Amino acid sequence: MTTTGTRTSCLLAAERAAQLLTTDEVAHCWEDESVLPGMSVGELAGHLARSILQVEWFLDGPVVGVETVSPVHYYARLMGTDVPGSAFNVGVRARSEETAAAGPSVVAEQARATCAPEPPTPRRHVTGSPFGPHRKSRSTETSGSLALPGRHASPADAHTAESGNHGPMPMPPIIIHAPTPSGGRIVTVHAKGRDERLGLAHSDHDVIVFLADAGLLDPERVLDNPAVVTWEGAEAHSYEPA
Fold first, then answer.
1. Residue 51 domain boundaries
2. How many whole angstroms from its chain centre is CA 158?
3. DSSP designation for 180
4. Is the residue at 109 inside a domain?
5. Which of 81, 114, 147 lies at the terminal end of a domain, its last residue?
6. Considering the entire predicted model, what is its pTM?
7. Which of 46, 88, 233, 237 has the most CB atoms less than 10 A away?
């Protein structure tokens, strides 16, 4: 699975979990014992919510004097996962109880807010344009947009563009992913060996804004060019929930 595929799967799983946490059935049974001994439904819901909330907590937290490990190595190092009274499991239950203490409506709202669609602007500008010779020229830049030197290129023939004596340079593939359960489609571009997420679009206008901010000239002209843009999982130009 590609990096983009992994990210998309993670977002979809988080949205499904958030939807479960907002159901009346969960709220009504909040204080009841769950299928896991020693944990109420609320505490189990709190544990599920933390799997969503912790992503931002960890990303925003400081990283000081610690070794960076992959998720596989992280979980491989855990000890006592199958012993209910281990320090690890006691800690899990304590943190889940702390989260659940806020009540079902608060926990549900926190999870829902974390999975909320992004505004119709990228969360950050792409560092350097992924579009190379297809990007905006300095003469076409406006105040506040990316300063991307290069010649003016039109995407009329958007699949390729001449680059000196090196022959045609392919346009980086743009993917409009399948709609999420809450609506909107993730937009990514693959360039320089990696997938760059541009944002969550709820309309063609959002897609155009993302591509323009990433440096592509006249992005509205490539949306229906299958050599450049791939619409996955649903009809082109459709942004309704999956």
1. 3-114
2. 27
3. P
4. yes
5. 114
6. 0.47
7. 46
Residue type, 188: T
Is residue 221 helix, strand or coil?
Answer: helix
Residues 9 and 95 in one domain: yes
- Only one residue has tokens 């190595």, namely 73
Residue type at position 66 = V
Angstrom distance (rounded) from CA 55 to CA 10: 11
Residue 110 lies in a domain: yes
Q: Cα separation of 146 and 7, whole Å?
A: 26
Spell out the residues 6+ positions from residue 225 whose beta carbon is closer than 8 angstroms to its own: 155, 158, 159
Tens of pLDDT, residues 6-57: 777 888 888 888 889 999 999 999 999 999 888 999 999 999 999 888 877 7
Beta pairing class for 229-231 and 174-176: parallel
Cα separation of the two ends of the chain: 21
- Two structure tokens written together for 187: 């937009």
| Euclidean distance between CA atoms 120 and 207, whole angstroms | 9
